[in-house]
Amino acid sequence: MRDVYTVTDELARRLDAVNLGRGAPDFGGPPPLHAAAADAVRDGPHQYVPSQGVERLRAALAAHYGGAYDADSEITVTAGATEALFCALAAVVAPGDGVLTLEPGYDAYPALIARSGGRPLPIPLRRSGGRYVLDLASAPPARVLLLNAPHNPTGWMPDAGELAEIAGLADRRNLIVITDEVYEQLWYGEPHRSVAALPGMRERTIVCSSASKTLSVCGWRVGWALAPARWTAALREVHRFVTFCAPAPLQAAVAHGLRWAARTGWFATQRAEYAARRDLLLDALRRIGWDPAEPAGAFFVLARTPVAGEDPFEANDRLARSCGVAGLPMTTFHTRPERAAGMLRFAFCKELPVMADAHRRLTGPLVKGDLS
Ligand code: PMP
User: Within 10 A of 201 (CB to CB), how many other CB atoms are there?
Assistant: First the structure.
């Protein structure tokens, strides 16, 4: 079966539509990062580096997280957050364990959980007014909670009350929490706060993140896991025989990039650029009656076709045909695709002129009277 991403790529190509389907930036991170990578490719490291990651990067990560994790015993560099998640799940899930996940949710999770022998147990994120809220009360018994915040695809970020509820549930049920924070630097109101920072949570939490979105280099495959020493030891055992180590010269470059970004305030610049793209997209979708939810973080907007109950593939076709913009049918983010009726995800990780073009196309005269 063809995946929704390929279907959307083909649709956009055929109709020459602006493709807001894929969640990878169409730009490549800040120039000083490229220079550091070029230096490292020339000067090395060229061979295997220690499996847990080059010392320079682990030290830079310790600084990036405010000294909350020990570089030697609590930080592991992986091939992207995807591998960190795989190693974390493999390290803590026993066959048959229930793993709570948010739904809708990132479409890699069911496969990653299945590989670890666990059973995915979805808990709903529901739209309430303009935002999404977590329905924790419905969470069935489980061993692990796999969180993701800022969240793909809804843009949800837990508020203080939700964070406290999550920590309370984890404590009452003695859950291990694996939290995917790849969008940690992308928030538009209240700053991101990891659940691991709540009292008592650090010892039961594994944080996974990466350079992919943090520095806009998804293809570099540099990620990391932060965890108390005993789980770090367990997940390093998995990592050693999966990839052994992440790309060596790029680890050195990411170390430089993290320190440079902190020194220059680049993360705030990146956020401001994303906020401008987000606002353009929200404005266009509101104007054409697609009822978008305002994301608190990450770089996606969920919106609903004005045609009640419309198949999301048909809605996407119609939008691409009528105004030359394609989103992504939400089916891939649900275990029950019927829940995705009428829903599309739009990624705003594209250059500002591309987002401006999408805005023009969505709101321009071509579409008048053609959208419902
Ligand atoms: N988690 C989430 C929620 C994502 O959206 C993505 C990328 N789309 C990833 C993980 C993958 O991250 P990485 O590139 O670091 O493997």
Answer: 18
The pLDDT value recorded for residue 365 is 64
pLDDT in tens, 114-166: 999 999 999 999 999 989 999 998 899 999 999 999 999 999 999 999 999 99
Beta bridge partners of 209: 224
Largest CA distance in the chain: 61
Whether the CB of 210 sits within 6 Å of ligand 1: yes
Q: Which atom of ligand 1 is nearest to the CA of 106?
A: 3
pLDDT band at 364 (very low <50, low <70, confident <90, very high): confident
Whether 104 contacts 334, CB under 8 Å = yes
Question: What is the Å distance from ligand 1's center to 347 Cα?
Answer: 14
CA of 289 to the centre of ligand 1 (A): 30
| Helix/strand/coil percent split, the chain, to 5 | 45, 15, 35
b/e map of 85-118 (b: 16 or more CB within 10 Å)? Answer: bbbbbbbbbeeebbbbbbbbbbbebbebbeebeb
> Who contacts 23 (Cβ-Cβ below 8 Å, separation ≥6)?
152, 299, 300, 347, 349
**Is the CB–ligand 1 distance for residue 82 below 6 Å?**
yes
d(CA 345, CA 144): 27
Percent of the chain with pLDDT over 90: 94
Q: How many CA atoms lie within 13 A of 230 on its CB side?
A: 6
Buried b (16+ CB within 10 A) or exposed e, 274-293: beebbebbbebbeebebebb
Residue with tokens 């009822």: 291
Neighbours of 31 (CB within 10 A): 8
3-state class of 355 per DSSP?
helix
Q: 180 CB under 6 A from ligand 1?
A: yes
Q: What is the pLDDT of residues 16-50, one digit of tens each?
A: 999 999 999 999 999 999 999 999 999 999 999 99
Q: Which pTM was predicted?
A: 0.96
Give the span between the Cα atoms of 363 and 372, in whole angstroms: 14
Q: Does pLDDT of 249 surpass 70? A: yes
